[in-house]
Each structure stands twice: as structure tokens, then as C-alpha cells.
Amino acid sequence: MTAEILIAVTAAAVSLVSALVSSVATYRTTVMEHRLQEQTHQRSKAELAKELFRRYREPLLWAAHSLQSRLFNALSRGFLTTYLRSGDPEEERYVRDNTVYLLAEYLGWLELLRRDQRFLDIGDVADTTEFFASIDKTRAILGTDTVSGPFRLFRGQQRAIGELMLTRTDASDGVRHEVLGYAAFCARLDNYPRFAAWFDRLRAQVDEIEQGGVEGNQRLVMLQHRLIDLIDHLDRDRDRLPKNRDRVQPHDQVPAQRAR
After folding, report:
1. Cβ-defined contacts of 33-38 (< 8 Å, 24+)
2. Angstrom distance (rounded) from CA 25 to CA 31
3. Residues 157-212: pLDDT tens digits?
4. How far apart are CA 40 and CA 33, in angstroms?
5. Distance CA 232, CA 55 (A)
6. Which of 55, 146, 203, 253 is the most exposed place for a label (fewest CB within 10 A)?
């Protein structure tokens, strides 16, 4: 083998080795960049999830607490029996309308949360997955026809009521939405028939809740339990709401109707 050929072969080998080394280095760099991008993306998703949770934690926590508290008092403490038959028209209307309002308020906050969440890629963030799973269980109980009791609402109806409960507010950073307060809710019931029509059946069913007791209100018993689960997720340290969170028990009995 001549010197020229040896030099050419050596040069080719060196070139090949250099190309292989360069390819490996490029591959490793690409892998590292991808991993860094993925880590950054995951951090970004976690931050988005944290911000969403922070924004809705308090209003959703209190809405869930108010609703579960009303259900507990209605099914375990005779609240409806006492005030639906008090003989005072204002008290009787309050019990019907406010009970429906507490359900509608909760659905209003769920609708606001859904609108903010729908464009965010945060579905695989662990805490977010558990958070939305807890919410979905409350929606499923309201929509199912496999248990007894009033207040059954298909998911489309749940969203529609949530939409009806939203009102625009002017903020420094633009238009936002909030959930109607109770006074505004009552005013719309009185002045807007199309609005009121969405709630007529629910208002009438408050009397069915009172008459059904625990056995006839399994949907609401289960809903109260799932709301407690959601509250436990939102208030894990139990530093925002009372630590004692009673659940309706199957043996709970509503006190007998008092004499009028």
C-alpha cells in the first residue's frame, strides 16, 4: 500500500470517526434540549394549574360548603320542615329560592372554572387531575338517573344554569364575570320570566326534598358526601372551614312536621 493510499484511508477514517462523534454529540444535545423543554413545559403547566387553583379555591370552597351545609340541614336537621311550613310567606319563599340559589351558585362557579380551564394544557398535572375528578363526581351525581331524588340535571342543564348565573363586571384589566349574588338572583326571578323558567322545577322540588327524607333523597345524600370530598381537597389543612364536617347518614331522620 502506497503512502498516498494510506494517508487517504487514514483521513477517511478520521473523517468518519469525526462525523460519528459529531452525530452523537448532536443527538445528545438534541435530547438534552428536548428534556429541558419538557421540564420547562411541565413547570409552566404546574404554574398554570397552581394559578387556576388559587383563583377559584376560595369561591368554590365557600359555594361547595354553603350547598353541602344546606343539604345536611335539610336532610338531617329538619330545616325544610321547620321553615317551609312556618306560615310566614317570606320565610317559605326564602327557603325555596335560597336552596335553589345555593345549587345554582355552585354551578356558576363551575362554569367560570370551565371557561378558564378549557384552553390550558394542564390535564396531566397530578393535583389538577384530582381536583377536576372531585368536581366531576358532583356533576355525575346531579345527572344520573340511577339514584332517587329531586334536583336531577343533565350536564347540559348544569352548564346552562351556570351560564345564567354569570354577570359581567368591569375590572382594571378588562371585562370579567362573577356569579350572581342572592339579591340579584331573586330580582331576576321576579323580573325575567325566561330566567325564572329555568328554575321553576327546582323551586317546586324543594318541597319534594322535605317530603322524601333521607331515603327519598339519595341523590342529595351522595351529592353532600361528594361536596365534602371536594372541600377536603380544597381545604386540606382545615384552616379555612370548620374541622368538623358532618355527612348525612342513611339512618338520619328528619323530625316530624310540627303542628301549624
Report:
1. none
2. 10
3. 999 999 999 998 876 665 578 999 999 999 999 999 999 999 999 999 999 999 99
4. 10
5. 17
6. 146
